[in-house]
Amino acid sequence: MTYVVDILIQSWREEQSSRPLQALPATFTESVKELVASLEQALSTLADGSLQAAVTRKEIELVKYLWNDLLKIRKQKIDEAVAEGIPVKEECLLAFELEYNRSVRGVAYKYGAGKNIFPDPRMNRELSSNYMTIRLVQDAGEFVGLDLRTYGPFKKEDVVYMPKEHAEILISDGKARRVMVPVHASGAST
Predict the structure, then answer these.
(1) CB–CB of 134/176 below 8 Å?
(2) DSSP letters along the chain, please?
(3) N- to C-terminal Cα distance for the chain?
(4) pLDDT per residue over 41-87, tens digit each?
(5) Is the peptide bond before 153 cis (omega within 30 degrees of 0)?
(6) pLDDT on residue 188
(7) 36-43: Cβ within 8 A, 24+ apart
(8) What percent of the chain shows pLDDT beyond 90?
(9) Whole-model pTM?
């Protein structure tokens, strides 16, 4: 029981202090539900006016507050990522968050496609490419890509054209933002 509370508090703190979503144990939702159920069961056996009953009620309130606030923070991060077009690491999402993320992204995609009735053919040659242009918003170290090439190190404000897989990782880690690159009417980039 204390273990679940410790994980909940730690997760809540980490989620508040970091930009990307933090990974949670796959069974976390069930663990929190079981914790509240066991506290409520224990409360039902205690005398109403006792100190232990008051402490147990406060524990239940604390767990529910932390859980609800944690989910509120995580939902806000998912919504911001969707609005900015940044992918979310699905392995960091709880089952219901994964469903929500996919649903919201689907709606956002349909909305974007619907509002774009006058597309600019000169914009973003990368839509059909396996490469992407990004701008670093913080320093990023050197890494070896899936293609076994070395990338980086990068400094804040560097603009880089790289494989989408690598760019999307930097974006989801909050280290970069996507750049839409205009092209000349002939198709050559500027």
Answers:
(1) yes
(2) -HHHHHHHHHHHHHHHH-SSPPP--TTHHHHHHHHHHHHHHHHHTS-TTSHHHHHHHHHHHHHHHHHHHHHHHHHHHHHHHHHHT----GGGS-HHHHHHHHHHHHHHHHHHHHH-SS--TTB-GGGGSSEEEEEESS-B--EE-TTS-EE--B-TT-EEEEEHHHHHHHHHTTSEEE-PPBB-TTS-B-
(3) 59
(4) 999 999 999 999 999 999 999 999 999 999 999 999 999 888 887 88
(5) yes
(6) 47
(7) 36/60, 36/63, 36/64, 38/1, 39/1, 39/63
(8) 46
(9) 0.59
> Domains of the chain, with CATH numbers?
2-112 (1.20.58.1030), 123-178 (3.40.5.50)
Q: Which two tokens stand for residue 125?
A: 């040659």
